[in-house]
Amino acid sequence: MAIAMVAAGIAACGAPDYTYVKNSAEKTYFRVPASWQKVDQAGLDYMTQAENPDSASAQLRKKMTWAVAYDADEKPTAAHLFSLASTHHPIAYAKVMHLTEEQANLVSFDALRNLFLPVSDSARASALEAGTLLPGFELMVDEVLTPSDGVRGVRVVYNYELPNGVLHTFDQTTFVNNDASIYYMLVIRCSSRCYKERAAEIDAVATSFTVRSKP
Q: Domains in the chain, ordered, with CATH?
């Protein structure tokens, strides 16, 4: 699926204020500041792919998934999204995934909250039992969203403390269509200090995330 980027907000002799990112086939749109750079797609795919890339399951997942990331760091990398090291500049990660019928039957608001990191009480309890739960969890925003008749979802903003002791904030918006056959997620991550300092900028990215229902 192709990504189209359209420059907007161009002044008479100025540069674009934003990069508009869209996947027309999935009717998914958001915008990031023009200074944010696209993360290398091969690197992003490598870090999000658990299977052997030549396997049949990997090829099927590739057909069912679209993902892209934009990083405010001068050296953009997918490691800023998934690493347990500090991320001092915002990085935004968008993902659209088509679900099997079995997966769709498991969709709930809590399932949407837990897509990136454990957020619900039960998910954090399971992670604690498995020995994978990070410390310092704080839930700051948890709201149910109904932007249109064909789309519903949640936005959660929460903190976790990484092993180096630096608190990080995760701003996650996830939608699902009416029959729960597709989910749409946007996650923005950076250190909590960065999140506070750039709150307006990050919120503008998060609230720009738009999904139109598919017939």
A: 4-211 (3.40.1000.10)
Bigger pLDDT: 45 vs 66: 66
Number of neighbouring beta carbons within 10 Å of residue 86: 16
pLDDT digits 0-9 by tens, 164-183: 999 999 999 999 999 999 99
CA angle 133, 125, 165 (to 5 degrees): 25
Structure tokens at 181: 């056959």
Beta strands in 61-149 (DSSP E): 65-71, 91-98, 138-148
Q: Are 174 and 184 in contact (CB under 8 A)?
A: yes
Which string of b and e fits 94-120 if b means at least 16 CB within 10 Å? bbbbbbeeeebeebebebbbbbbbbbb
Strand order in the sheet with 4-8: 4-8, 18-23, 28-33, 210-211
Task: Give mean pLDDT, residues 34-54.
Answer: 82
pLDDT at residue 188 in the model: 98
DSSP bridge partners of 4: 22
Give pTM, 2 decimals. 0.88
